[in-house]
Structure formats: structure tokens, C-alpha cells
Amino acid sequence: MKDDKVSSTAFSVAQGILLVSRNGKTASLVNPLEKSFYEKILLASESGRKKWKQVQSPVFRFFVPFLERLMIPGLTVHYVLRKKAIEDFTRSALAKGAKQVVNLGAGFDSLAWRLCPEFPKVRFIEVDHPATHKVKKEALQAIGDVSKNLHLLDVDFNKDSLEKKLGKSAHFKPNLSTVFIIEGVLMYLDEDKIVALFDSLKKITSKGFRLVFTFITPDGEGKYTHGPLLSLYLKIKNEPLNWKINATDLKKFMGKNKIPLYAVVKSEDIFKKLMPQTKNVIVHDGEWIACADLKEQVKNPKK
């Protein structure tokens, strides 16, 4: 990402959710509050308004399924479903006493904004690139009445240390039980960097935490993982998928950081649970959602 460029993925996810909300078969998956939020997000910038105009176009909406088949079949529905899984894991942690939620690479996600009024004593911190946050801040100002427990922390992951940035933040408290969310990010990192990232989360917290993240499975493991043009597209954008792992190996991988894996879910199962009577809807099955729980750590125990 360029220093002054907003994440194109953040725009695409927001657009995808709105496309799902306009599809008769899947519209009920997106509640009115989410729909309104993402509309305002797109309308807050010139780039977003271009995406908004596409959402309004019947011709564009007609061709989206064909475009997805060439790239990532069922991706837009998957965006909505993976967010539902992340919200469920987050809510269950809050119900158990978590007092802080940190979303790493939050983009234009609506979860913290929606949960803030419901959990006024919980700290919600979104971490992302300054350029992306600039657009989001403008959108939040347009929405108005943003809860005081929502905080946006600017971090350029190519230059800044997450550990130092969070450590210096007046809003992040290391002694609170925390939920860390990492959605749609880890596949672009090398395995060593992921291990280092997970290790840094352990260093910056003295309480236990829940880690909710998404991961890509190896090619060929699912029916709707990728289309024939995906590799070419990623090559052109210079965004290779560096980390892939199957669900059966994930538990062993998490053992490298000694963070016990709690659960793994896929979008297809979520869709069947929420819409059991709905047929002929393709759901991307190449990215899964994982949840891991680390109990409270003992820092520098006396010998």
C-alpha cells in the first residue's frame, strides 16, 4: 500500500456486503444498520462513490456472479458470513468478561461501531493504515453520535511496530482481557511473521486473550476456492498469498506460540445454519475462521 492510498480491499469488502444486501436470495444476511453504515462509508470518498455507483447499477450486479466465478466464487457472500462468525466469537468473549477488543487491519469494518453502544464499558480499538482511517473518520463524522469507547489507532505496518504503537496508546490497556481480531490479513504474511505477530500479542498483554482470525486453505481443498484468473490478478497487484494451511494442521501451528485453538468454522456451515432453505447460492470455501484462547499469563514469576 502506498503511504497515501486507502486499502482497495477495504472498499471491495464494503461494496461486496452492499451487493449481498441487494440480492433477493441473500439480502436478509445484512441487517439495516450494517447496510446504512457501509453506504455512508462508500459515500465518504471519491473512490468509495465509484464503488457505490456500481452497486446501484443493475448491469454491474448482474455480472458480479460471473466475475466472481473467474476470480473467487461466492466471495461477497463469504464476506458477510465470515463477519458473522467473527462477531459471534467476539460476543461470546464479551459475555465471559472481555473488556477490550482490538481489530488489527480493521478496514471499514462495522463491528466495533455497532458493539460500542451495547458495551459502553468495553474499549474498542481499530488499528489500520492512516490513509484508510482518514476515510473512515470522515464517514463516522457524517454518521454522527459515535460512542466515546471507539478509538482508531493509525499504524503503518510497513514502518511501525504494532507492539510499540499499542504500548504507547492511551486507549490500550495491557491488563484487560482482550479480543484480538485479524480478518483477511494473515494470508499475505510469511509464516515466520505470523508467529512473530502472535508472539507480540502475548508480550503486550498481561491478561488472557481471545484471538479470532481468518486463514486460507491450500488450493484444491474446497469446491469454491478460486477461479482461473485469481493467480494472474494477484500477480498483477503484487499481492501473493504467502500463507496457506489446512484446518487439521492449524492446531499444531498454534502450538508454536502455545495459544490453544478453540474452534474453526467455515462460511458454508454458517450459511446452512442461517439459511437452511436457500438453495443455489455459491459460498466461497477457501477461507476459514479460527478462534484461539490464551489464559491469563504469569509475567516474570518469582523463583
Descriptive account of the structure:
The mean pLDDT is 90. The protein has a single domain, classed as Vaccinia Virus protein VP39 (Rossmann fold), CATH 3.40.50. It is built from twelve helices and seven strands. It has helices spanning 8-21, 32-43, 46-56, 58-70, 75-95, 111-115, 130-143, 162-168, 191-204, 230-237, 247-254, 267-274; strands at residues 100-104, 123-128, 150-154, 178-182, 209-216, 261-266, 287-294. Helix 1 crosses helix 2 (32-43), helix 2 (32-43) packs across helix 7 and helix 5 (75-95) packs across helix 12 (267-274). It is globular and about 50 Å long. It starts with 7 loop residues before the first helix and ends in a 9-residue tail after the last strand. 39% of the residues are buried. It has 303 residues and is α/β, with parallel strands linked by helices. The chain has a seven-stranded mixed sheet, sandwiched between helices.
Per-chain topology:
Layout lengths: L7 H14 L10 H12 L2 H11 L1 H13 L4 H21 L4 E5 L6 H5 L7 E6 L1 H14 L6 E5 L7 H7 L9 E5 L8 H14 L4 E8 L13 H8 L9 H8 L6 E6 H8 L12 E8 L9
Parallel strand pairs: 1-2, 1-4, 2-3, 4-5
Antiparallel strand pairs: 5-7, 6-7
Helix pairs in contact: 1-2, 1-3, 1-5, 2-3, 2-7, 5-12, 8-9
